[in-house]
Amino acid sequence: MFIGSHAVSEGRITRRRLTRGPYVRVLHGVYADVSVPRDHALRCRAAALLMPAQAALGGRSAAAVLGAPAPGWRDPVTVVVPAPLTWRGPGGVRVHRTDFSAGDVVDDGSGLRHTAPLRTTWDVAALEPTGTAVSVLDAMLRAGTVRATDLSALLRERSGRRGSRQVRRVLDLADPRSESPPESLVRVACVLGGLPAPVPRYDVVEDGRWLARVDLAWPGQRVVVEYEGEHHVDGVQIVRDDARLARLSASGWLVVRLAASDLRALDDVVARIRAALAERSTRV
C-alpha cells in the first residue's frame, strides 16, 4: 500500500500507471495492489498512512483491530484525534475529536496506532447505534478482550461525562453469550421493542434429552429464534438445520427462522416475535 502522490514524486510510478494500472484506490490518495483483499483492515491501514502522528484508530475500527467483528469495506474508518487538532481526514474516514491520554492508545507493533481495549469499548458504546455497540461489546467480552468488572469501574470513573448515559445503556444490554452480531442485534431490538429479554444460546432439553442449542429462546413461552447465516445455505447444513428444527417443532416449540435479509427491517422481526410470544401466551 502506498500514497500515490509520494510514489509519483519519487519516480516509482507514473501518474498514468497509477490511475490505469492494477491498483485499487483504498482512500483518497492511497492505493493498493488490486489483488489485496478489500476489507476494513485495508482501509484502516490506508487511514494510518494519512492521519497525524497524534491520532489513532478508534471506535469500531479499533475494535476490529482488537478482534471484534469488523465493519464492511464501505463503512467509514473511525479515527480519534486530540481536541486541538483540526485534521478532517479524507472521504471514508470519520474523525472524532476528543481528549485521550497516552495510556488510551497502543501500537500493534507494525506502527498501527489504535485505542486500548477499555477506551475502545467506551467510544464504541458512546458513538455507535445501540444495537451495533452491543454487538461489538458482546464479542469483546466473549473473547476476554475486556472484562465486565473493568467496564463497570470505568463507567463509575467517567460518570457524568458526555455519553456516559448511552454507555451505561449499552453495558446493561451486553451479554457475552451471544455468539454473532445478528444474534446481538435481534436480542437488543427485542428488548428495546418492549419484549422480555430472550436467553442467548439456550440448550433445549426435553425429558432429559438434549434437542438443540438455539440462538435465542423464551423458555416460558417455548419460543425460539434461529438466525440462518451464509453457512446455512450449504446443502448438508440445510439438512441438519431442518432436522434439528423439526425436532423442536415436534416437541412443541415454536421456531421463528430469520435470514440476513430480515435484519434490514428489525421492526418487522420484533413484530413477528411479538406475535409468536402472544400466540403462546394465550395457550398457557
UniProtKB/TrEMBL annotation:
Residues annotated as domain DUF559: 214-277
Do you know which SUPFAM superfamilies this protein is assigned to?
Answer: Restriction endonuclease-like
**Pfam families in the record, alphabetically?**
DUF559 (PF04480)
Q: What is this protein called?
A: DUF559 domain-containing protein
